[in-house]
Amino acid sequence: PDYNGAAFLALALAWIANVAFGAESVLLVFVALLLVRLVNRSTGPQWRPLDTLGVLGFCVWAAQSMQQPLILLVASVAFALDATLKQPLRWHFFAAAACVAAFIWMLLGGVSLITGELTALDWWLLCAFAAGIVVIVTTSPEPVSYCDTAPDRLDRMRVNAGLVVGWLAAVQALLTNGSSAWLETPIWVCMLAVLFSAGIRSLGYSR
To answer: What is the pTM of this model?
Structure first.
């Protein structure tokens, strides 16, 4: 949330990816955004039961629509994190369990877990992104941003956990669809924008 420039950079990179490579699948980006905001609480108050049911249903539909069952495991992680971090919403453990149940249901229905193949270059790029995420998580200062609808400053642990959830959403697409996932959705250019903005900000602090 503190990387305001990342949003504009991600928009520009996503537009370029769309024009140059046809990266038109934005459904995964919306799923990742919802799960990230669930964990970092940037929207403000704890979710109401109707909010949880709506996002849970949306994740199940998105996983089925994109044939990416691993989305449900990422959603399960997000709900479990929200149930354990600062000001936990304990009944989100039930939502996490429901995501796992939906994941198993998809597998029993014959949906392939991993359908693509990754090259050595893919794994190197994945490791590079992972290293960048680790650097951000371990070096980021306390957030200065506040919730959208409440005068509460965001929690550092929750913000970092949300970043990891967003990265996991991108990784699952790569594991499911293989190398083509780099350009099928703008989510990876969004992650690149976050890493770039964090790097620029770190340079500013160092000076």
So the answer is: 0.84
Cα 119 from Cα 110, distance rounded (Å): 26
For 94-106, the pLDDT digits (tens) are 999 999 999 999 9
Cα torsion 198, 203, 206, 207 to 10°: value is: -140
Q: What are phi and psi of 73, to 5 degrees?
A: -70, -40
Whether 185 shows a pLDDT value over 80: the answer reads no
C-beta separation of 43 from 50 below 8 A? no
**Measured on CA atoms in the order 159, 164, 168, 171, is the torsion positive or negative?**
positive
Q: How big is the chain, counted in residues?
A: 207
DSSP class of 188:
H
Cβ neighbours of 143 (radius 10 Å): 17
Two tokens at 145? 């941003």
Contact between 26 and 188 under an 8 Å Cβ cutoff? The reply is no
